[in-house]
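[Discussion] Sanity-checking designs against the backbone

I'm trying to build intuition for which residues belong where. Below is a structure token string of 173 positions. I'd appreciate it if someone posts a full sequence so I can compare it with mine line by line.
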């Protein structure tokens, strides 16, 4: 009886590990897609709403899902408080640095966002639009690669979780 319960617990634990690993692949795809939508809304705010960057970030923090919500909110707070932050680039980079542990994005995704930050608030609206569109295009490419990774490795992680649990049970008994 205890052997069966132990075996079931081992299989369940290994399966859960596989599902958690798989969800990290799915989360990256979802967060890149959300960032693309947020940058498109930022472009609209800058181009048609003539919204200052700190207010546009604040608006995005109310519209986006966590953890992007916190990134935009923190950047907005830094820009409004001016606490050791002199430019929009500084606020954006600091917000990304503080919250990158909560983001499921890889280094190449974050590099695109850091590069975008270098152009925020330092040029006219048309130039910012070009930089935002370029960042969106690059993020769309990363999203496609992330989706491929999810289809390949996400399913494999789930299967490996179950199979490794079964293998452990067989080896133990």
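Best answer:
Here's mine. Compare freely.
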């Amino acid at each position: 009886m205890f052997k069966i319960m132990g075996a079931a617990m081992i299989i369940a634990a290994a399966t859960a590990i596989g599902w958690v690993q798989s969800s990290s692949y799915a989360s990256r795809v979802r967060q890149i897609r959300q960032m693309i939508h947020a940058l498109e809304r930022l472009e609209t705010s800058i181009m048609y709403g003539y919204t200052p960057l700190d207010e546009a970030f604040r608006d995005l923090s109310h519209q986006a899902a966590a953890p992007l919500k916190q990134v935009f909110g923190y950047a907005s707070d830094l820009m409004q408080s001016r606490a050791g932050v002199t430019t929009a680039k500084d606020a954006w980079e600091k917000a990304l640095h503080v919250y990158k542990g909560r983001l499921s994005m890889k280094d190449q995704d974050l590099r695109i966002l850091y590069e975008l930050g270098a152009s925020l608030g330092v040029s006219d609206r048309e130039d910012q639009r070009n930089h935002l569109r370029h960042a969106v295009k690059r993020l769309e490419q990363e999203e496609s690669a992330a989706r491929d990774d999810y289809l390949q490795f996400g399913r494999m992680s789930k299967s490996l979780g179950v199979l490794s649990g079964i293998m452990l049970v067989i080896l133990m008994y």
